[in-house]
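Please predict the structure of the following assembly.
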Amino acid sequence: MDPSRKRAIRLTVALTAAVLLASALVYVSFTAGNKEFTASQLLTKGKAGQTYELAGTVLSGSVQRDGTTLLFRIRDPKLPVSVPVSYKGIVPDPFAAGRAVMVAVEKGAAGTTYIGQGNSLTTKCPSKYQAAAAS
Amino acid sequence: MQYLFVFVVLAGVLLFVTAPLRRASSAEPSLADANLAELEAAREAKYRELSDADLDHRTGKLSDDDYEEIDRTLRGEAITIMHDIDRATIDPQ
Amino acid sequence: MALIGRALLLIALGTAGFGIWASIYGVRNGRREWVDAGRRSVYALAALATIAFVILEDAFWRNDFSFNVVANHSSTTTPAFYKLAAAWSSQEGSLLLWVFLLSLWSSLMLFLVRKRAREVTPYATAVLLGFAAFFTSLAAFWANPFSTSSTPPSEGAGLDPLLLHPTMMIHPPMLYSGYTLLTIPFAFAVGALVTGRLGAEWISLTRRFALAAWLFLGIGILLGALWSYTELGWGGYWAWDPVENAALMPWLCITAFIHSIMIQEKRGMLKVWNVSLVLGAGTLSILGTFLVRSGILDSIHAFGASTLGIPFVILIAVMVMGSIGLILWRREELRSDARLESLLSREAVFLFQNLVLVGMVFVIFWVTFFPLISQALTGTKVSVGPPAFRPFIVPLALILVALSGIGPIIAWRRVTVANLRRNFALPVAAGLVTLFVLLFLPGGPRSRPFALIMFALAAFVLTSVAQELWRGVAARRAMTHDPVPVALVGLVRRNRRRYGGYTVHAGLAVLLVGVAASSSFQHSNDVILKPGQSASVDGYAIRYVRPVETISSQKIGFGAVLDVTKGGKHVTTVTTVRNFYPSQNPNDGLIGKFFDTSNADSEVGLDQNLRRNIWTVINAQPTPLASLINKGNNVFAAYAPQVMTKAAKLPPAQAQAAMNTLWEYRDAAVSEIAHRFVTNPWPTEFLLIVAPLVSWIWIGALIIGLGGLIALWPVPSFARRRAQAPSPARPPAPPSPPATPPRLPVREPV
């Protein structure tokens, strides 16, 4: 086979593989991802039965434990609202009231409960790069 | 005392960094020297290739025929580089 | 001393600026002395950064809380080792560490190449000093490690307890060494592009530093994984966290570069690809540094937003635009000298491997930054977690492992079918035998096809490496007649790049076997236990024998002794503790501050061997002690002011004695309350994990490190055998190669 034709075929195969990979990546990202909401967005836009990434700060005084279930409220960064979360799973060591956290939650059918998905809770390390934020 | 230390450090840095400027300027390496260095690096790389091909042959990755051909090609390329080095050394222009 | 430190930063900035100008002026005007002055600026910068760093470390050592960074990240009770390492747990200290390491590595590089690449090096010097100036100006003007307070506290805030772990203290210097070492190939690539000197020389100069960067960055990543596994209470070693990914991406890039430069060295191919990889790796290393401190992505590592985001974004934009511009400008000089002859060749394997590695970088980059990408495209941030990585990374990793086994046993340029048969027979057989044995093994891994394939591929890789070693030793012995161990050492010594690389491949196979096994076949149980109760995990019975407490000036620990049995036979006994460190918040009370759950860490109870790990962690909470703690707080809230008021009226010695008595009472109260955990234990949560072959991950990493060191070690100069080489004094021979090749260097033993 003519070498330049060989090269053209190889290039075509490589580019096709790259396009397929990129397309699969884009598809998986948009379908498997969860929307990131704050507490206020979850209250106003969240749909029952859907899973969202809830980001915010743990409300002081809201942390309780009931057996292996962790109960806490996540406060909106700007508005004076919070949502209650019931979470079962690994709790990172830095988790505490006043810390920034993210957890995947499913909005309950009644719209008042938010069930944290197992092992989805992440906590930001206490900031070394800015002054301590008010909790 | 701290100011004195800072002054000493600053003076030291200035003296050290500007020392070459106070010396008689040395001959600037020419373009030919840079070309020669490039060729010598290419030669070293070619020697490594020869050695690798030899090792590939001894460990059975290359058949005798393939090795002969590759070795001939590499040696030819090495000779070309060495000739270029000779030319660059004798006639830097 | 802080004044000196601040002044040194400013002098360093001025030196860097002068050095940039001197280097470029010198090279553009043929003024060697200015180029030398530019190089000396780097040496001077290294000296200044070293003195500044020593001043900072001294402040930590002496507990000089007038330094804000010391007051915020250390305390009198911080152990000495962690005091010295606390310097880089802060934004300010870590920036100074960056400058320190960058200037040291740059000085070393420029010293080593001071007589070579005289056109390229001055531009590389200017780029390196540019990076140094950037980080020094951040330290001098935005996050100054030498900022002080006129009213220093008597006690510091202490180090975050999660960082009180040896691996966490070595992890940042290793990572930063990797990042700063990556700037060196970047700088020389820029210099090569600016000057158009894109031949073998810049590659040979920077290859070793690229390898060193790869090694240090790899060690840093490994230490982070080890810390995660042994210190954090989740039982895993890799979370696909954005900051973890930020270190992995440049490492994958430079791994690709280390392989593909061999193709450029041998065949003059992939020039655009190689400069792109180096420039990409350097840019990704700055991106990684940026991610940790910008807060743009939610991460357990992202230490919150800082004001440094904008300067970093500008620097990254300059690096990206500049890189693209330079490559486009020099695209003619970057044309390949040769073409890929055959898909059955080592060049083709390296090329596929590069594509796989870059594919992995692309996947990791896309998924990591997807929240920002989705926000830019749709207005809504969409998070994708670890499940988004696996469908792509796992198959790509399998292909990578396969290629790492094929590469060593396939020749350059092309191979014949007969040779393929000869070289592949044994490794493929080993892989297939492993596959079938595991497939039909009772209780084997057939339920996890990817893990099964990984085990088979690992057998293939290890066999191919072993075959190569065996044949190499045999070839050497055929010439030298040395005993096998001597021949092996001689073989590796003379071919460090090759056999160092093979060692790395073997280590990779071992490591990925550990990853595949531990992630596919892990069993866990999250339970509440009282003393005497048991839980079972993967056939092991884990009994909570008794509670333990540890009390020291640093921390209070609530722990448990756990006894592990299987089939009635004792396996091991482990102890796991949850430590609480005193808080600095006065609202917590004089007693409550010692039971602060927001300042806690875990000591994992771990029993590991080659076969399996038993990992346990206690999640003890002081909640049942709340009423006692509150009572203690109230008592001391009333009592302490009285003592302090009386002490204020006493002479200093008596006042101190009165205060000491107060603190003794307080400590006794804290001990008595903490002791309730042992005398009146309450049901406590445990996370219990049994995972196979975790140790293989660390063993594989050690093998990879060993291979890297072998490859990095300086090679004895290739002997200049002058016996048959043409003398340079003779007139040049005709350019075309003669029909019979003249004799070149005599073949030495391999």
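Residues 531-682 of chain C form one domain. Residues 300-304, 718-743 of chain C have pLDDT under 50 and may be disordered.
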